[in-house]
Amino acid sequence: MYQFCYASKSTSPKTDLLEDLANILKEARDFNYQHQVTGVLYFADGCFFQCLEGECLTLKSLLVERLNKDPRHQDIKLFETKEIEYPSFPDWSMKYISKRSQIQQFCQDMGFNDFNPFAFQQSHVDALLLQLCVEQGEEQKSA
């Protein structure tokens, strides 16, 4: 199993953003469920950050066939692809975590004024994934 993370900028005008986010999530959840891919999507300040976990060939296909051709994304930045033993988000075909003060505080603690994954190094990505796992856990407790 592999883990693949990327950042991209939204091309959606503000008037279409909510509808585009809903469509992205529906498409991702459908594809991911069918292909045993799990992951998380975070969106804030006009930027997407997504972590996907699954088989290497499936993730590469997802990148080439879907993400690179999706007009709702631009300036895609790929982070390190890692082999992992266990998924970080095993219960979610695609978990969406909206802009949160905890993530904003996390970014400030990491030295960023706002959510700018394009400035992240791999160590920031790893720390963000841990924070998103915490967010996921807190949501499950309150559900």
TrEMBL record:
Name of the protein this chain belongs to: BLUF domain-containing protein
Species for this entry: Acinetobacter pecorum
Domain BLUF: 1-95
Entries under InterPro entries matching the protein: Acylphosphatase-like_dom_sf (IPR036046), BLUF_domain (IPR007024)
Cross-referenced Pfam families: BLUF
